[in-house]
Amino acid sequence: MNNDALVIFDFDGTLYPIDPYDSEQALLLAMAQDNNLWFRLRAHRLVSQDMKGQLVGRAFHHRYASLLKHADKAMVEHIGNTLARHLKSEDRAALLSLAEHADLGILSCGTENIIEAFLQEAGLLQHFSFISAKRLYWDAQGSTRMVVSIDGPDAKAQATNALRSTYSTIIAVGDGPTDLPMLKAADLGLVMNWKTNAKTYPFPTFTSLEELCSCCVAHLVKAKEASPTAKR
Ligand SMILES: [Mg+2]
């Protein structure tokens, strides 16, 4: 990976369709099935508030970290593995061919361990230069510690701007309101909408990863041709 171009992806809702739960909600509900009533109530309340958009950034992260204190590593990875089934072979092929033109990275408010398992299962992990979100670390007793790298929409934009010194062209891809600052900070912002053709945000919108990746490649080829160092 030695490109001067980068394509940044959000994870939940961008690399797979949310239906109806995102990856962290799915993990909380899976853990609730094996837990006591106290845990189940707290987990279901957190998921319900999150689905209504009532929790932003750290308001969610603190309660999520607390509920995941004794999360089973295999279960966390299982959520990522399961969600990877949403990716069709043409989606994977499109991402692989995009990786020939640019470095790929993830900036997400989700959980790095789930994202890593997703990419691993899809055979894409080695094609991503970085995953920045929040990461769970397990100690010898099996308790977790959570380190938050991206705590909200502005952090995504700041991380994008920080990558400017490394890359001459940055494309960002997202699906929702938390991605808008990142899409604005990039040279080209694109929206993935798995469900409808409706254009909800003022950015080019795609219903397939294949078409979205083709648009990225076309933009990158054009940017390379326009670059002052391009061979004539
Ligand atoms: Mg998203």
Quick overview:
With 232 residues, the protein is α/β, with parallel strands linked by helices.
What's the name of the CATH homologous superfamily? Answer: HAD superfamily/HAD-like
Shape: elongated
Mean pLDDT: 95
CATH architectural designation? 3-Layer(aba) Sandwich
CATH class: Alpha Beta
- Poorly predicted residue ranges: none
The count of DSSP E runs of length 2 or more, i.e. the number of strands, is 7
How are helices and strands ordered from N to C? EHHHHHEHEEHEHEEH
Strand content: 15-25%
Structural class, by secondary structure, is alpha/beta
Fraction of residues in helix: 40-55%
Query: Order of strands in the sheet with the most strands?
Result: 4-3-2-1-5-6-7
Report Rg.
18 Å
The tally of helices reads 9
* Ligand inventory: magnesium ion
List keywords for this structure.
alpha/beta; 232 residues; 9 helices; Rossmann fold; 7-stranded mixed β-sheet; elongated; binds magnesium ion
Explain what this protein looks like in three dimensions.
With 232 residues, this protein is of the alpha/beta class. It has one domain (5-21, 81-226): Rossmann fold (3-Layer(aba) Sandwich), CATH 3.40.50.1000. Helix content is 44%, strand content 19%. It is built from 9 helices and 7 strands. It has a 7-stranded mixed β-sheet, with helices on both faces. Helix 1 packs antiparallel against helix 2 and helix 1 (23-33) packs across helix 4 (73-83). The longest helix has 18 residues, at 209-226. The chain is elongated. The two termini are 24 Å apart. The mean pLDDT is 95. Magnesium ion (MG) binds next to loops.
